Amino acid sequence: MQTKKKTMPVGVDNFKDLIAKNYYFVDKTRFIKELIDGHSAVTLLTRPRRFGKTLTLSMLRYFFTLEKAEENRALFAGLDIEKAGEEYMQAQGSRPVIFLSLKEVQQATWAKELDSFGLFLSGFYQDYLFLRESAALSSMDRKYFSAVWQRQASQTELELAIANLCHYLYLHYGQKPLLLLDEYDAPIIAAWEHGYYSNCILFMKRLLGAALKTNDYLDFAVLTGVSRVSKESIFSDLNNLDVCTVLSLPYNDILGFTTAEVTQLMQDNGVQDNLAELKKWYDGYNFGGVEIYNPWSVINFVKHGCVFGAYWLNTSGNVILRRLLKNVDNERREELVRLLHLETVTAKIDEGVIYSDIERSPNALYMMLLTTGYLKVTKRYQDRRLKWWCELMVPNREVLQAYEDEVLGHIAGEGRDALLEKMLKAMVEGKVIRFQELLRKILREIVSYHDTAEPESFYHGLMLGLTVLMEGEYRIESNRESGYGRFDLAFFPINKNSPGVILELKAAPKTPEEELMKLAEKALAQIDDKEYIAEFEHQGVKEVWRYGVAFGGKKVALAM
To answer: Does residue 144 sit in the same domain as residue 120?
Structure first.
């Protein structure tokens, strides 16, 4: 147990630096014991960004590498792996280790990406220049090594760079090396974002296939990434791969902080009074049945004087979320808006992500949102065909902010918050003319006639999305039974002295403008006929504004 306050290791992902410079360390060295007790030939750990993947592999590197073994042994003094017993510490400093991270190999075109790979592998080989002088290597081996190091290797030769280095280390030391590959999918994500996915997949398939598939000179390998790229597209025929995703049981508490670890961290820093609110902001993840906090956000929270904020989101923006939202249809749009109101969505889960499917398959979309940390699993079950399904929701307040920003921007356009706030204010104050005027302005600016192919669904999703700014003051319900029917949208005030709001929506794109008011009045009459107001009365809300809303293309009429 730590009794002294230590500096929070914000951005420190080198294990030696973290220990040597006395940063606060949440001890995860039990992972070393678990690997020694029984590892697969290749283990892939997938977690969201900033969940400690690089630090974890760095920890493995300093434990297993035979380079400076005695010096590195001191780094593990008093940690869980040392306490596990000498039989485990015998594995310390026992073999050559290859450690590389692809997180920086991300370019806008395939030509630049391939050049980046050449530059990266050249710099990587620089660390092993001693092999050029090794008597164990043949002249052909040295010639190949020099070609990679001097950036004269062809694409085909680059694809063998990791596999050949394993071979050379084995020849030199007489021991098979351990391969640690961090952020293996960073180049693939960049390729998907910039449109050269197929080129990158083919290269990565050969690079990793040669290193992992039939490599007689590899001891074992541990890989990390954000997602598991489909086996068919990159890990073809790799039967020795153990994939540990956010849904898997093995190693489920290694990446991220458990509740016990966060409680201890907060107590050690004398800020345990913040635990309840911290849970709302940064907890909520569920990895293989274990409750997990976002580690990056927790350490930043303590580092920055216990000020709550979107620390994780601010590290690299919401590029993935923005891209995933770009081409969603009306049904997906409405489901995503429901997530904003802390409801769940249900999707069939296929953990082998095929990036080309993400923009056309809702299941692939939700799987990507799950693996990248924008959703969590609340329930998992199998159907009669033994296919897995999950109920998913937003994990915490920090991620909810990302949805609010991106979903609102996607639906209403960037920079329209002030306009939306004015419209919603007019709505809850019963100012029907002002409400209609501002809603018309929003429709003119953001709605394309192509959006209204499924009119009622589109307008319902639009109005639901625009209510994001009301969270905290109102509880928003959609398509829920009340009285003798189902209302479209209802706003139940948190403060019962505030007015409630109920909206009944109608859509008829080809209706002449002068006929829209009749349709709006019909919608208003439905509120009364079906007694939708009953739920408000049941909850003790004294005043309720009732609106019939009729949409026609970019036109709208309101009756009250």
So the answer is: yes
Report pLDDT digits (tens) over 509-541: 666 777 888 888 998 999 888 888 888 888 888
Q: Which of 244, 266, 285 is the last residue of a domain?
A: 244
Cβ proximity of 394 and 342 under 8 Å:
yes
What are the tens digits of pLDDT across the range 181-219? 999 999 988 898 888 988 999 999 999 999 998 899 999
The count of C-alpha atoms lying within 13 angstroms of the C-alpha of 486, restricted to the half-sphere facing its C-beta, is: 4
Sheet with 376-382: list strands edge to edge: 345-348, 388-393, 376-382
| Whether 127 and 234 share a structural domain | yes
Which secondary structure element, helix H or strand E, spans residue 409, and what is its range?
helix 397-412
Closest CA to 89 of 102, 75, 101, 104: 75
Whether 24 is covered by a domain: the verdict is: no
Asked whether residue 288 is domain-assigned, the answer is yes
Q: Same domain for 374 and 262?
A: no
Residues 121 and 154 in one domain: yes
**Domain extent at residue 80:** 59-92
Reported as type and span, the H/E element at residue 459 is: helix 455-466
The strand ranges marked E within 226-296 are 241-244, 257-258, 285-287, 290-293
Lateral strand order in the sheet of 97-101? 97-101, 178-182, 221-225, 42-46, 241-244
SS3 4: coil
> How many domains is the chain built from?
5
Residue 190's nearest CA partner among 106, 120, 102 is 106
